[in-house]
Design a protein that fits this description.
By secondary structure, this protein is α/β, with parallel strands linked by helices. 43% of the residues lie in helices and 19% in strands. The strands form 2 sheets. It has a 5-stranded mixed β-sheet, sandwiched between helices. Strand 9, helix 9 and strand 10 form a beta-alpha-beta unit. The structure holds 5'-O-[(R)-(carboxyoxy)(hydroxy)phosphoryl]adenosine (KG4). 5'-O-[(R)-(carboxyoxy)(hydroxy)phosphoryl]adenosine binds next to helix 5 and helix 6.
């Protein structure tokens, strides 16, 4: 089954053709990151406009690169939540038109379900059940993937997402947007013990997380140092900050895997590209006898293929949308508001 899949929830317009949920036939991405870098973050209105400009040409390119014709498409999929509402709407409306014109089913896909499914593309042997930590720019959650479309949220961030914390820390250090990769590069060779940052714990739910305190601590440290005329070692700060994020994610996830008896651990989302977090999970998984799956870097960030992969399993489960499909700025992984 060949699915034409659309992703436009943030600042990447992405269109892919995916076969049977596991094989990428084409994977086209048009990133707006350079444009938003001027402003230090995503400007929603600009994002929506750029999606409109890119999506039609990109869709044709995805079909051409896949080496198929329009009549070979069996279904159309779209990431319909959560995200910047204007941006999501562009993908949803374009996908609706395609499904209508091609007379094929329309499959709505939750963006984070897509991130998780990126692992099905990277690891053909991977099948649920498994425990997944999804860490992206807008979402951070620990979820039991009981089956391809059956998920249970164990915990999530109470405030900022891990990726947002990277982006804000980068901004205060004068690094470009999106800040995750520049911080990753800056932190290499830095001393992670030099600055001590808070790692949050929630009494009411050990699997919930919080990153706003960490973000504030970094901002305060930088501003206080500036006011006192003290030098900050930026490499050490980047390394110490990354350690605090990793210390918040890794032990909590390992604990959840043990508590709920999971042997397979899957990491997903843009922040899964971080070299320290990848290395820390690898060490922790080995120490605890867990099988670890982290996608290659190109499948960590937003892409259309992950939407096509999850769409296949949603289709098998009977999920369909009509032309009344709406876009949603916020919605949890189980479709609840
Ligand atoms: O999954 P994603 O592409 O978009 C969302 O669905 O939100 O994630 C984007 C986030 C950004 O916050 C970006 O700074 C972060 O992923 N990111 C990283 C790295 N590469 C991207 N964070 C830490 N280290 C990286 N190497």
């Amino acid at each position: 089954m060949r699915i034409l899949a659309f992703e436009s929830t943030c600042d990447e317009t992405a269109v892919s053709v995916v076969e049977d949920g596991r094989k990428i036939l084409s994977d086209e991405i048009c990133s707006q990151a350079q444009l938003h870098a001027i402003y230090g973050g995503v400007v929603p209105e600009e994002a929506a406009r750029c999606h409109i400009e890119a999506i039609s040409l990109l869709a044709q390119k995805a079909i051409d690169t896949a080496g198929i014709s329009r009549s070979d498409i069996d279904a159309v999929a779209v990431s319909y939540a959560p995200g910047l509402i204007g941006a999501v709407l562009v993908g949803v409306n374009f996908a609706k038109s395609c499904a209508l014109a091609l007379n094929v089913p329309l499959i709505p896909v939750h963006h984070i379900r897509g991130h998780i499914a990126a692992n099905y593309l990277a690891f053909p042997e991977l099948e649920p059940p498994f425990l997944c930590l999804a860490i992206s720019g807008g979402n951070t959650l620990l979820v039991e993937v009981k089956d391809y479309t059956v998920m249970n949220i164990l915990g999530s961030t109470r405030d900022d997402a891990a990726g947002e914390c990277f982006d804000k820390t980068a901004r205060v250090l004068g690094l470009p947007y999106p800040g995750g990769k520049p911080i990753d590069e800056l932190s290499k060779g830095g001393n992670p013990e030099r600055y001590v940052f808070p790692v949050s714990n929630m009494d009411s739910n050990p699997y919930d997380m919080s990153f706003s305190g960490l973000k504030t601590a970094v901002i305060n440290l930088v501003h206080n140092s500036e006011q006192k005329g003290e030098m900050i070692d930026r490499r050490d700060l980047a390394a110490s900050f990354t350690k605090a994020v990793s210390d918040s994610l890794v032990p909590r996830t390992i604990r959840a895997a043990k508590d709920f008896g999971y042997k397979k651990l899957v990491i997903a989302g843009g922040v899964a590209a971080n070299s320290t977090i990848r290395a820390d999970f690898k060490t922790a998984a080995e120490e605890n006898g867990l099988e670890l799956f982290i996608p290659p870097l190109r499948l960590c960030g937003d892409n259309g293929s992950m939407i096509g992969a999850q769409a296949y399993y949603e289709h098998l489960a009977g999920v369909r949308a009509g032309t009344d499909l709406n876009a949603y700025a916020s919605m949890n992984i189980n479709g609840e508001f």
